Amino acid sequence: MGVIHVTDREGQRHTLEAIEGWRVMEIIRDWGLPIEGLCGGACECATCHVFVNEDWLEKLYPASDEEEDQLDTVITQANSRLSCQIIWTPDLDGLELTLAPAGG
Amino acid sequence: MTDNIETDVVIIGAGPVGLFAVFELGLLDIKCHVVDILPKVGGQCAELYPEKPIYDIPGFPMVTGQALVDNLMAQIEPFHPTFHLNEMVESVESLGTPEAPLFRVKTSENETTFTCKALIIAAGGGSFQPKKPPIEHIEAYEGTGVFYAVRHMQMFRDKRILIVGGGDSALDWTVNLQPIAKRLTLLHRRDAFRAAPHTVEKMRSLVASGDMDLHLGQVTTLKGEAPVLEGAVIKKDDGSTFDVDCDVMLPFFGLTMKVGPIADWGLNLHENLIPVDTEKFETNVPGIFAIGDINTYPGKLKLILSGFHEGALAAQKVHRYVYPEKRLLFQYTTSSTSLQKKLGVAA
Predict the structure, then answer these.
(1) How confident is the model at residue B108, as a pLDDT?
(2) Which site from A65, B9, B145, B256 is most exposed, i.e. has the minimal number of CB atoms within 10 Å?
(3) Where along the chain is FAD bound (chain B) (predicted)?
């Protein structure tokens, strides 16, 4: 067991219990934070866009071409990722991220 | 021109669930028209993941989104549904009573008007609309300096055009508008494009010959006193910024889904979903049903197969509205000659 820390669009930080094997998007959605996840985790919509704290970026698998294609459809920062493409493992205990603006 | 169409049922949404509802209604001799905002049938299956395999459709160990849609179209073919594509249902007006509902349904684009006895909303996540980049005050320029689609190319003649994006729409409009633009700039966040290779090549050669500009970066701010656009501030990967002067900006960031005008039809909504009962999948308005991803009820699962079930049950209640005098006999397609006749397969 472990946690992730998610800062919402109002700047409030939430600590969410994480489950191994779940997509980070699914963890965020399961806890009721406002993340859309329209396509259900198929890497087809970019509505689960998050900004990952710089310290954690290197610990993640790099984005696939498919994820980059979807990131083209939003306004990104250097630390932009799609949270449906991050599968939570105990290595990511304490993962820190921020929800991107809605619709972007 | 306003068409006025009288029919039994209008289905909003030509995704898999809307398509299968045509089948279930058809078996009960109920005629329907299907309206969808996209130019093609299939909804999310065809628009978002046509090539993605789906593994939880009963009877299909694996089927792609597009193949599922193609099969559904073949399955409903005997019922000859009429499709109204590229249209969005704008308004729904109740003309009847709770016991005998009657609705006037109007679409926006082509102004089709329907009179129908029941309405089935199978709109999934809502209507597909262009994704708007979250740039401050962008809405102040929409329709004058910012456009999410090209309807009339001539509007852009002799303009300084900034196209943003790296997909097919961005690249197609880049090569199509370049000849009539005063100056065309393509902006993308990275030097990789997911568009047809020959279009990308054409764009690269226009850049090489100096006939257009290509920049890498993202728009941070729009310039000019709204609604008149004068330029955009672009941020590069290294954090530095520069300006591009432009009269119009065309962002092509793909599509997203919005609940849209459904919110104005007097239906109860819960977080953009429509609550229904689980016997008939009817909303708080008698005669208006909601099936598939757009509805909610205790235990709801957003699965295509749930939507199929919901359509079958909704059709039973629709039958009562369409044929109030007729008793509905429950039949199987395996054994009923009458159903087989409707399907065109009777011996």
Answers:
(1) 86
(2) A65
(3) 36, 44, 49, 89, 128, 293, 334
Question: Of A55, A85, A86, which Cα lies nearest the Cα of A69?
Answer: A85
* Residues of the domain holding A67: 2-99
pLDDT band at A40 (very low <50, low <70, confident <90, very high): confident
Measured between beta carbons, the chain A residues lying within 8 angstroms of B135 are 75
| Domains of chain B (ranges, CATH numbers) | 3-128+256-342 (3.50.50.60), 132-253 (3.50.50.60)
Helix (H, G, I), strand (E, B) or coil at B222: strand
Does the pLDDT value for residue B124 go beyond 60? yes
Q: What is the pLDDT of residues B34-86, one digit of tens each?
A: 999 999 999 999 988 888 899 999 999 999 999 999 999 999 999 999 999 99
Give the domain CATH number at A78.
3.10.20.30
Residue A70 is assigned to a structural domain of this protein: yes
Flag whether residue B82 sits within 8 Å of chain A, measured between CB atoms: no
Q: Is B158 annotated as a binding residue?
A: no
For A4, other C-beta atoms within 10 Å of its C-beta total: 23
Which amino acid, B169? S
Query: Across all residues in chain B, what is the average pLDDT?
Result: 94
* Cβ pair A38:B125 closer than 8 A: yes
Q: Is residue A72 part of a domain?
A: yes
The first and second tokens of residue A57, run together, are 């970026």
| Chain-chain contact of B135 with A103 (C-beta, under 8 angstroms) | no
Say whether residue B258 is in contact with chain A using an 8 A CB cutoff.
no
Q: Which of A17, A8, A87 is nearest to A50 (CA)?
A: A8
Which pLDDT score, from 0 to 100, does residue B60 have?
Answer: 96
Q: Any chain B CB within 8 A of the CB of A53? A: no
- Assess whether pLDDT exceeds 60 at residue A15: yes
Q: Structurally, how many domains does chain A consist of?
A: 1
Helices (H), A1-104: 24-30, 54-57, 65-71
DSSP H/E element including B67: helix B65-76
